[in-house]
TrEMBL record:
This is Mg chelatase-like protein. Residues 209-386 form the AAA+ ATPase domain. One of its GO terms (molecular function) is ATP binding. It comes from Simiduia agarivorans (strain DSM 21679 / JCM 13881 / BCRC 17597 / SA1). Pfam families: ChlI, Mg_chelatase, Mg_chelatase_C. It comes from the Bacteria. Keywords: ATP-binding, Nucleotide-binding. The keyword ATP-binding applies. Belongs to the Mg-chelatase subunits D/I family. ComM subfamily.
Amino acid sequence: MSLAIVHTRARVGIDAPLVSVEVHLSNGLPGLAIVGMPETAVRESKDRVRSALINSHFEFPARRITINLAPADLPKEGGRFDLPIAIGILVASGQLPAKALDTLEFVGELALSGDLRAVPGCLAAVMAAHKAGRTSVVPAGNGPEAALADTPTYVACNLLQVCACLQARSDWPRACGTAADTHPAPQAELADVRGQPLARRALEIAAAGNHNLLFYGPPGTGKTLLASRLTSILPPLTRDEALEVALIHSLVSSQPPLGQRPFRHPHHSASAPALVGGGSVPRPGEISLAHKGVLFLDELPEFPRSVLEVLREPLEHGEVRIARAQTTAVFPCEFQLVAALNPCPCGYAGENRCRCTPDQISRYRGRLSGPLLDRIDMHVPVRALDPAQLRGPSQEESSSVVAARVLQARQRAQARQGKANQYLSPGELEQHAHLTDAQHSLLGEATESLGLSVRAWHRILRVARTLADLDATDQLEDKHLCEALGYRTLDRRAG
């Protein structure tokens, strides 16, 4: 047989479109040509495949080999096509049987020795193959990731093992997870945070309602420490959520974190594409890598304003759409934004040691736009600690104690409306808030005096709804509205 067709998968965003690797052997001068919009890494696969076949004791055909990656208008990149190309050459040259190819899909990069190396985006390929009624064959390094799909998946360590299974001389090893994959690594402990009752309370509210949070205060008061503890009190990922997180991370890593809520902490020199994603072949940015987790932006005013402004739409819609000339990729990005900033350039506004002029402070705070601050539900001051609070063992509540309250509040919201309070629409807010006429008047007067927008009104209601859930009550009380209003301190300063 001089023609073979092997199925594999490309990578476009979180999708994995089908690619047919068509291998044809013909008479003529020996050579190998790859067509079908291959990028550099794909064109270089001919050298990797040749060495892998020879070192695996197969014959590399001394004929003219043409490899077509169909459809031809779909860009192909990476080393993921090495294994299907090698299998196609072996089948076309009669060294392997073709009967098993219709039910299998192959993904993997080949080393020169014939060993299989893990590739990014494997999980999406496994899931797409299962929907198409085929079984994937992936490198053993992608086994724990592929096992998350909970579908039959074969793994192999090298080309020889794949060929032995295709010839029915050996059974296919199945992908399976390990204990380390199903039990997340220990999270940082909230009890490490001394004092700061207001900030700890805000952290609990943010976790219970999935709210965005801004800490501001002098340097060294624990803003970064507080932010890093948020994931320790969030509810554990469900299976579907863990699958979504692993699916996104597998696009940029061949060994994605499994079973953990991500915590992303980009430097303030990060560009807009680094945050939202980009590239000629679109890849997820920090906001998508923080999906179902936390995105922490320290020193918020140090980020270029143009970079911060790209966060506005993703914060509202929970997804980012990256358009390129040849394709458009959509990445989910349901993340919690936690930000930190100093009150002035030196960080000590209001203290004798501050030497910043009012103009410098105004320019510093002016780097943050009103629409962005409007989308952050809670603005919380973090004060300097009394050194006496650092003595002796910590008496603060542990992460497990706070996480139990957070979980109960989340379960209450889930039973009532099927989602976290952060995602309630204005209509759903009216339905679940149950404000009295007096409370409407209270909230209206407060938002008018603070100069708040309608968006801020809704965010205050969402926070108040979360406070009521933490108190295990369906009715919003005046104290819930007052506390929610108290978390708009930057708005009050602006007013």
